[in-house]
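User: My advisor asked me to double-check a structure prediction for Genetic interactor of prohibitins 3, mitochondrial before group meeting. I don't want to rely on an old file, so could you generate it fresh from this sequence?
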Amino acid sequence: MIRHVLRRTGVATLCRISARTPRIRMMPPARLLNSATSIPHVSHFLADTLVPKCTSCGITLQKTAPDNAGFYIEPKPPSVEGKAAKAIKSADKVFSEHFSSLSDEDKALLLNGAEPDMIPTINAAKHKAKSVPASEREGRQCLRCRNAYHRSAFDASEYQVETVSQVMNRIPANGKLIYVVSLVDFPMSLDESVFRHRSAKSMQFVITKTDLFFQTNNLASRYGLQFFQDYMFRKYGVPRNQVFVVSGKSDWNTDTFLDHVKDNSFFIGSVNSGKSTLLQLVAQIAKKQRDKLPNARRERAKQKQQDGIILNARTYAAARERLKMWAKSKAENGPGASFMPGFTRGVIPLEISKAITVYDVPGFSGESAAHLYDFLSADSIKQLQKGALFHKTGTYLSKYVTAKEGQVVTVGGLFFLQVPRGCMFQVRNVINHKVHIFSNMEKAMEVWKHAKDPEAVRGLFLVDHAKTDLVKHTVPPFDGSFDLVLRGLGFVNVKATGARPDPKNAEDLVVYLPKGVAAISRVPISKYITRTLSGRDKNGNVLRKEKWVQLSTKEIKRYTGKEAFFEQILPTQE
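Assistant: Sure, here is a fresh prediction for Genetic interactor of prohibitins 3, mitochondrial from the sequence you gave:
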């Protein structure tokens, strides 16, 4: 037996070399074995191969306790005979029988020069039924996710939202952060408590849902990107090249963003910020890029698929088939996405390429924030999360409703804004529900809580009055107009018109919010992302307001950080 001591990088390692067997056993030093900090971070991909997880929400699966989280029902193996029988249409069966009975001359006449393999046969249908995609064989969903996808069944107790600290503690110290921020309630979806764990300058920021605010990608990239880069740089010192604007739904700038994604990146963000939807699209774009690489087998499969589409003689059928394949590919290559807050429950790894792996983590929420499903139904949440189109409902050219002193403005009961004495407001609604005006607060409460005909007001209110209380808030003073922004829901633009009220008799602007719902008063975001009226003519002269529409030039403002972009709307101390 020969004993050697190898010295490499200053660490002595004992090796035993046997004369009979050339095997070498490497023994690490005892100080490394006893040190917990020396154990490297275990790859989530390695963990997933050992412990099965739900492909939609990322929770660890189990088959023993139906009432516990992660319960999974093992699917029965599909019957090939039964599946093949379903795949064969009666018309195809009759056609196949008649076609096989024809002579060779009649077959050639019927084909009219087409290849025989272009005709669908029963054998082809059976073969298609036998071939089960790998994603169907390997994809596993917990019972909660299956009920959500296929039955639209939701249990609020299964959709618990974690705090910022809980989510950040899941992420290893060497993990890179990509902060996904929703434009719907910006900047409320940008939680500054995240910066207690990591510096904002070390993160990448992605502004999502831009398709709700801009008509085209060109406008989003030109005006939207400019504002958000200005804002993040002026307020947090974030380099401009670390800020992106994308749309996971419309595929805007996703390929550009993908070029800047680094290995071991973790996508973080508030609930319903669009993280999972963005990751689905990122996975799809990455797959398309891989498919562009030369591969003979893939090219043959693609050609066969295209031939199948061509057989659908009508154009709309081919388009529908392409959309179906696109949606299926997104679902197979990315995490599950849902309008319900708290859908993602675990860390979900996603392999972008052989060199890049990214991770989806649960969305977080403020510790005092209310859960939407505490007082909203699943259908109401789904409706609100679809959002409203800002370029149609939120600009100075959009339609508005007028509210006079004493009247109360509401959108589904999400807020009750009372117009002060001597004031008149123009209200533009950018929340995906209709706006309604009551004559006074007493009438609004009477209809909301004690409607004589509940069916008549069923479509008016989204909030269940029996599940929440209203809290009185005071809106900070504003000049001209402001955006009343509700966390995760959208905003309404409020513009004061007419003469200014006498300061001696002026009343506070009061808004009533469901308990736990947070709101801010924001400088109208339209000033920074769209061309608005400047209030000056072409010579730079200040115009009277009644002449703005006819004579005012248009401008888009740059954010300088010299004035506050928003103020908190705080509960009134009584």
